[in-house]
Amino acid sequence: MTILAATEVLARSTTTTSVGWIGYIIIGAIAGWIAGKIVKGGGAGLLMNIVIGIVGALIGGFLLSFFVDTASGGWWFTLFTAVLGAVILLWIVGLVQSRR
């Protein structure tokens, strides 16, 4: 991997939208709750839902940045991205836990 390619990957992972920090916390809580309902049928508590949703938004934003301009998204696109990433995150965590 060249330095240019590594820089491009890092640039994709740090792309943010115009939602703001309070918006990320609210969207993170909603996305974590929705992802919990989709993957395992229940929520994980408010704080864990926020963490799952925000980490999911980073994962979803990184993956979608290869296909669309994620920086121009608003509330609904950020929520969709966060839910997508949170579902992927919970699915991977479920796979790791089932192997134990």
Give a verbal description of the structure.
It is a multi-pass membrane protein. The chain is mainly α. It has one domain. Helices cover 73% and strands 0% of the residues. The protein is built from four helices and no strands. It has helices spanning 3-13, 21-39, 46-64, 75-98. α2 crosses α3, α2 packs across α4 (75-98) and α3 crosses α4 (75-98). The longest helix is centred in the C-terminal third of the chain and has 24 residues, at 75-98. The relative contact order is 0.18.
Please identify the structural class as seen in this structure.
mainly alpha
Number of domains: 1
Biggest sheet descriptor: none
State the end-to-end CA separation.
33 Å
Strand content: under 5%
Q: What is the share of helical residues?
A: over 70%
